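Design job #97: recover the sequence.
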């Protein structure tokens, strides 16, 4: 069924001979025309042999090139249709046969017209179709199937078996897209909805605080963080106090923990610095503990979102005010 019989090949060679003998071709750009026809003849011969061997994947690209080189030819279009049939691409084959039929009518080759029509009739029952329609107004819609624009619709579009993407777009509207897989002989109806404007898409706006934390929880987190920093400072100051105390007890300070006396002035200074650092450490640790505990209470007792909270810290203490 898919072999390219000698009539196709002979017909193609005859067409090439006629083209090469045309006066216009001989008068204008003869070397370029001869090179084009020579390439087409070579590719067609190779594709013919590959079709006989059922190597359709190798033959089809060469026949596509031949059709592009000699668009008025009929035999190459018929051969390309047979090649697409061999690949199972029936809709592509139907289009190739339709182009061959038109070219044969132009060339006044009635036997080729009949041949192309017969091939189309043979595969017609096996074709798969996407039946496109629109709900509501279709004004401004651009519809594509596998990125190929559909020029006229509503319509039934023949497609090759396999996966396809139908997409419809309109200015300032949400695109419509549907992915579908069809089999030979299947007809699938696809109704494209009326375009939905982007402004009324119904998408929820992003909330100002998507975490759900109200002001009081934020205040509690801040207080807790401040308490943690204060405690860290207290531990550092405590480390400094111990370091100064150890230094005062060394040879440089000449102090003794048993007698609490120092034999050197440097020891007295180190003991004083140690005491001061210890006081700072105690103050920071106490403050940090109070802040952390207060922050935890504020966080855990936070009311529903929307409650206003304000926190104040002064020399006399900490104040928290809630406005419901």
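Job complete. Output follows.
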């Amino acid at each position: 069924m898919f072999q390219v019989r000698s009539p196709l090949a002979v017909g193609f060679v005859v067409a090439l001979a006629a083209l090469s003998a045309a006066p216009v071709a001989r008068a204008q750009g003869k070397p370029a025309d001869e090179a084009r026809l020579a390439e087409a003849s070579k590719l067609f011969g190779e594709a013919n042999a590959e079709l006989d061997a059922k190597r359709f994947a190798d033959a089809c690209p060469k026949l596509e090139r031949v059709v592009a080189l000699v668009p008025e030819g009929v035999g190459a279009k018929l051969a390309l249709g047979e090649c697409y049939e061999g690949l199972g691409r029936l809709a592509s084959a139907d289009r190739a046969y339709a182009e061959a039929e038109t070219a044969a009518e132009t060339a006044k080759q009635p036997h080729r017209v009949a041949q192309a029509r017969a091939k189309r009739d043979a595969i017609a029952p096996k074709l798969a179709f996407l039946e496109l329609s629109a709900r509501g107004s279709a004004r401004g819609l651009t519809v594509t199937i596998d990125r190929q624009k559909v020029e006229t619709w509503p319509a039934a579009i023949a497609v090759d078996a396999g996966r396809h993407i139908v997409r419809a777009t309109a200015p300032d509207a949400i695109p419509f897209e549907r992915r579908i897989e069809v089999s030979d002989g299947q007809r699938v109806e696809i109704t494209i909805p009326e375009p939905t404007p982007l402004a009324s898409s119904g998408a929820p706006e992003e909330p100002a605080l998507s975490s759900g934390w109200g002001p009081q929880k934020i205040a509690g987190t801040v207080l807790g963080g401040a308490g943690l920093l204060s405690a860290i400072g207290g531990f550092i100051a405590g480390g400094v106090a111990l370091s100064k105390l150890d230094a005062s007890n060394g040879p440089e300070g000449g102090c003794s923990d048993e007698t609490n006396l120092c034999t050197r002035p440097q020891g007295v200074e180190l003991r004083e610095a140690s005491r001061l650092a210890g006081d700072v450490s105690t103050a920071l640790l106490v403050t940090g503990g109070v802040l952390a505990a207060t922050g935890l209470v504020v966080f855990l007792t936070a009311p529903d979102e929307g409650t206003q909270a304000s926190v104040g810290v002064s020399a006399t203490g900490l104040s928290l005010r809630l406005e419901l």
